[in-house]
Write a structure and sequence with these properties.
- Keywords: Membrane, Transmembrane, Transmembrane helix.
- It comes from Dendronalium phyllosphericum CENA369.
- The radius of gyration is 18 Å and the shape is globular.
- Helix 1 crosses helix 3 and helix 5 packs across helix 6.
- It contains 9 helices and no strands.
- The chain has one domain.
């Protein structure tokens, strides 16, 4: 009988750490390409979307969770999701309130279709191409929504990057308390936290990379992106070795 593998990782502390780091890179690296390198939002969007498409095709071919492939796609989706929102706001003049509402509604529609087709939104059950497709569409929308929400709070409402990070961090902490102590539904808790980690990471990225005159620490998009990318790569290498070690030990028995 053919064995079916889950295509996404288990939800552990390392998962959340890499997720926040990836969202930070999505914010800073998108700014680096479009502004620092002067590629512009349009050209940057086309380039990164093409790379994302290639990475997704490879991800679907694997039919199982491979840390390097999975997290590479997450980082790329973080960048593309940021660019989608930035283009809507900066190039097409759509307000942050409108984009926040639109992406929230779009994400809700995806969840409704996903659940009506598969009867579950659980991470541990993403073991078919169809479920994985729903998953990646939802993830892309969470990144676009998180970008809009983060910018709305930090910039449009002038709350500031540090204060916004604290607000989103506190919101995630409340969800964690609800899950561990108040019996919140695990799937609901996961997706709420997943959505909120995007504006949390974006606020942290802006706080580190923006100039002091704009309320940041002035580390720049290059330094911030490289720092967080190096941490992500280190953690993914660790996960790859950790995952492969048991497989090598039990390969004879599985054959």
């Amino acid at each position: 009988m053919k064995k079916i593998f889950n295509r996404v990782p288990e939800i552990t502390m390392i998962f959340w750490i890499i997720k926040v780091l990836a969202t930070t890179v999505g914010e800073t690296f998108a700014d680096f390409l479009s502004a620092t390198l002067n590629l512009g939002l349009g050209v940057t969007s086309y380039i990164m979307s093409s790379i994302l498409l290639i990475a997704l095709l490879n991800q679907f071919k694997l039919k199982r969770y491979v840390p390097a492939s999975f997290w590479f796609v997450v980082v790329l989706i973080s960048i593309v999701g940021t660019l989608i929102t930035d283009r809507l706001v900066d190039e097409f003049g759509v307000s942050l309130i409108t984009t926040t509402i639109a992406f929230s509604f779009s994400l809700l529609i995806v969840f409704v279709f996903w659940y009506s087709n598969e009867k579950t939104l659980a991470m541990h059950s993403i073991n078919t191409a169809k479920r994985e497709l729903f998953y990646w569409v939802a993830v892309l929308l969470t990144f676009a929504l998180g970008t809009a929400t983060g910018d709305l709070l930090a910039e449009a409402l002038k709350v500031g990057y540090a204060q916004s990070a604290l607000i989103f961090g506190a919101s995630i902490a409340i969800i964690a308390i609800g899950y561990y102590y108040l019996k919140m539904n695990a799937v609901l808790g996961f997706w709420l936290a997943y959505i909120l980690t995007r504006p949390l990471g974006a606020s942290i990225g802006d706080l580190l990379s923006q100039s002091p005159t704009n309320g940041g620490f002035g580390f720049g998009t290059v330094g911030t992106s490289m720092l967080f990318l190096s941490i992500i790569v280190s953690l993914v290498i660790y996960l790859s070795f950790k995952r492969n070690k048991p497989a090598l030990q039990t390969s004879d028995r599985q054959d």
